[in-house]
Design a protein that fits this description.
This protein has 2 helices and 22 strands. The protein is mainly β. About 5% of the residues have low confidence.
Length: about 300
């Protein structure tokens, strides 16, 4: 092959290569202009701050509360929810975000929390505080206690832990103790007089939760009294507080209590609550006269000692 033909072939190859490189460069420039100077593989920059919203800022112990927010980046990813303990942040939960950077999740309330959201690129939200509401679980207590014996009040504070606990018997004063590490506590109280009472238990707040109180609990302190019964031979007669005495009439007679007063009577393992319907008894040393139906309800023998709140 002659030298001139070799030269023309080389120039043709060089021209084709130059044309290909020019076309490739133009395509890249167009792509660059279409994406704002970024390649298609790059992600859009965040457009706003990380946001964290809490639906409920106070939650009962063990309950769930809702969290939601945005990472400020319009792309899928993840967010971490962190809590601060002793000045350090610890991860609680990791949640995914949708194409708009939004997330939503639920957490269970076990103790007071200071939380924040951390986006995948390290940006953080403002902190939010969630307060846990503690409560008191009381054991089943006695409804009646005889004078000279002790009323026991016990239960557990939740969240469990060592806390100051107090019980107030209305009109009788306040007692204090401390719960154990497992949250258990117990009181013993000796009534000084008969009557109807109520008490409530309070637990002081702690680092884990707020303080709380139980609902009122009622009980009766009972004193001994001598009683008899009446009825046979008197049925059909009127009673002092109005009405007619019959074999099925429930009630008691007393010399001093106002008509209609509710009286708790206990004999053995049986307890009844009846009203004052008549005057009496007039036998020496006796406090109560029971109607025949009340006597049957109590299993009372006829003459003896009953325990009463009045």
């Amino acid at each position: 092959m002659s030298t001139s033909r070799i030269f023309r072939a080389s120039m043709s190859l060089f021209t084709c290569l130059a044309l290909f490189m020019a076309m490739t460069s133009g395509s890249s420039a167009a792509n660059s202009q279409g994406t704002g100077g970024k390649t298609a593989s790059e992600s859009p920059a965040p457009t706003g701050p990380v946001k964290l919203k809490v639906a409920d800022y106070s939650v009962n112990f063990g309950g769930r509360f809702n969290l939601r927010g945005k990472t400020g980046a319009a792309r899928k990813g993840h967010v971490r929810i962190q809590s601060r303990v002793n000045g350090r942040w610890h991860n609680l939960r990791k949640a995914g975000t949708d194409g708009m950077g939004r997330y939503r999740l639920k957490l269970r309330a076990r103790h007071n929390l200071v939380i924040r959201a951390v986006a995948g690129d390290g940006r953080v939200s403002k902190t939010r505080r969630v307060t846990v509401i503690g409560h008191i679980r009381l054991d089943r207590s006695e409804r009646y206690v005889k004078l000279g014996r002790k009323l026991r009040v016990s239960g557990v504070v939740v969240p469990r832990g060592v806390r100051t606990v107090k019980v107030r018997v209305r009109g009788e004063g306040v007692m204090r103790t401390r719960s154990r590490a497992n949250g258990r506590f117990a009181f013993r109280w000796t009534p000084r007089r008969n009557g109807d009472f109520s008490y409530r238990v309070w637990a002081r707040k702690s680092r884990k939760s707020t303080g709380d109180s139980s609902r009122p609990h009622r009980f009766s302190a009972l004193r001994p009294g001598e009683a008899s019964y009446y009825g046979p031979g008197l049925y059909g007669n009127g009673v002092a507080c109005g009405g007619t005495l019959t074999p099925t009439t429930r009630g008691v007679a007393n010399k001093y209590l106002p008509c209609g007063t509710r009286v708790t009577l206990q004999y053995g393992n049986r307890t009844v609550v009846v009203r004052v319907i008549d005057r009496g008894p007039y036998g020496a040393g006796r406090d109560w006269d029971l109607t025949e139906q009340t006597k049957k309800d109590l299993g009372f023998g006829g003459v003896g000692t009953v325990w009463t709140n009045k």
